[in-house]
Design a protein that fits this description.
The structure holds two protein chains of two kinds. Chain A is α+β, with helices and mostly antiparallel strands. Chain A is built from two helices and ten strands; from the N terminus they run ααββββββββββ. In chain A, the strands form three sheets. A four-stranded antiparallel sheet of chain A has the order 1-10-3-8. In chain A, strands 2-9-4-5 form a four-stranded antiparallel sheet, with no helix packed on it. Chain A has a two-stranded antiparallel sheet with strand order 6-7. Chain A starts with a helix and ends with a strand. Helix content of chain B is 67%, strand content 7%. Chain B is globular. The chains are: A alpha+beta, B mainly alpha. Strand 8 of chain A pairs parallel with strand 3 of chain B, so a sheet runs across the interface.
Amino acid sequence: MKKIFFTLITIIFSVALSYSQCNEKLVDIAVSQNRGATYLKDFKVKLPATPPNSPRAIAKFQIVLNGGNHYRFNISKAKEYNGIPIIQLYEGNKLLGTSYLTSKQKDYKMFDFLCQKTGTYKIYISFKDGKAGCAAGILSLVN
Amino acid sequence: MRKISFLLIGFIVALTFSCNNDQNPAEITGDFDIPDSLLQETDSVPEISSQSMDDLVQNISSPIEIASLIKETGSKFSPELLASTNNLDKYNTSFKRSLNLGVLGADLGYLNLYSQNRFIVDYLTAIKSLAEGIKVGQFFDFKTLKELATSGENLDSLTYLSVHSFNKIDKYLRDNHRSNISVLIIVGVWIEGMYFATQINDQVKIKEISDRIAEQKIILNNIILILKNYKGDSEFQKLLNQLIKLKEIYEPVEITYELGEPETVEQDGVLTVVQNEKSIITITEKDLENIKNQITEIRYNIVN
């Protein structure tokens, strides 16, 4: 009985740990999906679900990008959450790039940005339809 | 006994899955991560406005970016650009350790991009010593970093681990109200990056590099703004004075903008955004010379 008990506990913990990605591991996963580019920064986000008809929760980060550089923004979600992450790049209030094109209703795992102007930009990370989610956004330099 | 076992298992299952679903990712790892937008509402540390701090931290260019630009120009690896690792005994205060941790971090970025493994272990050892001196050594997995450097394989992983370690240190220091240390590391990285850029520009005269130097005028203003929060400390004040002098040298440098709308194109499934708004830079050889001299002086005071 004792043997079965400990075996069960071991299995439960192993399954639970392998299932969970909403931690630092997510950054490693996101970076590994981004070959050919050099990691610069990561933006880890966990947001709660927002009630219907409410503005969806958005995490905002400020960065400087340098003119003449080719950047890549990619994002990975933790598999234990349903929320599909969207990463967007803004300059002031102007949307420059997004991983979700509303016009095509299409998700992209990444988008590239050919920066021509050094300055402060904003990264917004949110989840489609205001669902709860956990994601890691990565800023990289394309070599 | 069976009943107790099932109860226990049920409890463990509930506990395990509740942790997975409700805990912040950083709570699990000890690296608590709050988006900037939320920090503004919750973090009321009086020492500095969190908005300004975030602006500074996120605004400073990575040493990888400067090193990458230099490599793109076709410049060969120049070991003479690196700071010496033999001066560690002189760095006997947190102020000096932090600044030089930034300097050596930038050197490590340069070494990584040029795959200079023979130097990397030496720099990693020095960085380890400085990081431990300011109690952030735990964020570097030195064993793995050294193994990667020694084997000479998987240099991408080495670069990733190095940069990621510095990012984790920065986050940890900010979250633990040690922003003064974080600022110094960032200033150290920035000064060393500027030192590389100005020295290389002296040799190759490439517009991309002189433009990058000119555009650092924007970053310098941010740095000065943040350092002013610590001017009560004499060492900070001395550093601030040197940077204010640099700002005066930057005064004639002009940056204007040509407006344009961004274009998005999809090619082979990859979405690319091209920014059509451009910076127009006006900087003279004399300006570049003056900036180089001042940066060299500031850097000399840091590394000696």
